[in-house]
Give the backbone structure.
Amino acid sequence: MFALLAALLATGIFWDQPPETAPVLKQAGIEHIYVAPAQQQEWKQKGYEVNAFDASAFEKLLAPGVQYRMDVASATTVPWIDANGWRIQRDGPKKYFYDVPKGRASLAAAEAFVYGADAVIHPDREDLQMLAHMLVFVKQNQRPRLPVMANIGVMDDGSAATGEVLNLLARRNLLFKIVREPDPALNLNIRIGSPEYPKQEAADPYAFAQKVREQLTDEKRLIRIFGSSVVLAHLTGDRGQARLYLLNYSNRPVDGLRVRILGSYPHGDVAASGIADPKLADYNAGQEATEFTLPRMNTVAVIELRR
Amino acid sequence: MKRRRFLQAAAAPMILAETPLAKEPEPAVPAYRIVSRYKPAAKPGMPGPYPGHVVRVHAARSIDAETEKIDATVVRDMIARGMTALTGDSDPRDSWARFFSRDDVVGIKVNCSGAPGIMSSPEVVAEIVRNLGTIGVKPGQIYVYERFKSQMDSVHYDRYLPPGVNLWAAEESRGSVLGYDPATYVDVNFFGEEDTRSNLVRLVSERFTKIINMPNMKDHGAAGVTGCLKNIAYGDFSNVARSHRREKTNTYSFIGTLASVEPLRSRTVLQVMDGLRGVWHGGPFSPNRKFRFFPKEMMFGTDPVALDRILIDIIDGKRKAEGAMSVWNRSMANVKPGRGYDDNPNIDRFIREPGHIEYSSRLGLGMYDIAKFKIRKIEL
């Protein structure tokens, strides 16, 4: 059922366990892996499609997830999210590597899928089955990618300060894209270091993101999410359609999520990982915006919207 | 032998000669945006047909302060006397029939945030359910409800109620939005929080035709006191704790704003304050028994502002008697988040806002001027 699954996807698996663990992979239906160069021949002899893994050829990403840092003073009680979408958007098509602890492999695969990243994941052995299920979901929901939709253009100078601003914008679902020059089609265009966005303001990325939100206004935001502070959105689309990706960075399901998307989309369908036949509830396509409830969400959901 | 005492007079406030709010600028009121498709009733339930009227029924035998055992027979008498005194009827069934008909679907908004130390007493809830039954409201048309399932489960109302009465909580798991009406909410941004909506309990808009509000007599670290207004407001909307994240809270204006949202305002037709137990410090929770007391009283009315105005005096009077600072104290010197509040009644977590009650009166929810009240005291 899962034959050659990983080979069909942009997501690969780095497996550093000895070849004796082949049955574990087989049980998960995985027959294509990345291995250490020294093990390559041995795995091939076991009938596996293997690639040698060279860490230097990959850009390492954070293990995605949520840090509930109760003992750390902060401006809000919103948990800290370790997410890589902003980096993938910033750095573009590269080869990425996730070296993730137990419980995070599925989320890493989902994140790579949402942002279209070519990624290799080094999972905990016990996560293999769940990862395989996620890869099936990813395969089933592969579509030609649509252009990124955003309110905000960021002229990226490549600095760490701008990177942290991108991170905070992403965490607050203030949708951006990287632009070379100001794009008049966007609501806001930001160049760190300009008179309107001085560098000293960017030193406090939380306050900076808040300023951007106020300038944009909540009414004009392409996406708003109510009911969770651990779900991040990525929106793509063109003309009469939009595709909304939602990622739940916590390790628990979200019981109910209300989404507001700017624009009128009378038709919507959802696919959600680990949920059979999911439905959007309380759907309301108004003139200005469309709202719906996702009754339950595990790791990732893809919502197709049509005019 | 019952000792009965009727008083109908303007009650003299016990200690409330001055309110610091009068000397200080009014707390800032954020920009609230109320979204609701519901129109107010011709005569909204709050303040209802008895603005400024409060019936106070005290019964020394209602609860044993040592064992905290409630005498259900005394409770029955308290409710019968309170309701008939409120409406002027001689038969309690006539009193209840003024508010409810056999076709109504009735929500009973209990308060379980202080359970198991203090809550809307199951014996009182059961007696209200029994009274609804006497006028033909079937058990299946009655919903005892609260926001958090874990809190309500801890009370075990099911052990006191007849089969068929619904027990319902908006949040089976904390933070779930599924029990709320997505189209009825108050949108406000207090401090830059991402989720700016507080949605109304879904059953209030979609199922209930009438609501009975059943708060307790409690101190509240942020709101000053928590009575009718706080129970019906914060107990019927999601995402409200954000109003008291910081020392200076937004409870002053948020409580009344929520209570005024339709259809909540129109459908909440009766206020029954369960003061058999009370909490004079540390509320709304009650982890520390030394801050519980026993007013052994219930209040009846339709005007939540009037009942809460009296509640201020009850709580502040008790605090004064215990040597604790007033709920009107606004000194930041006493505000020490996370430092001893649970054990020391002269430490606060927030600046209290008992002014939320007067503010609510300005939203049309009831009368605040105690000199104009019609208060009837009954001693059993």
Q: What stands out?
A: Chain B touches chain A at residues 172-173, 175-178, 182-183, 189, 191-197, 245 (CB under 8 Å). The mean pLDDT of chain B is 93. Chain B has ten helices and 15 strands.
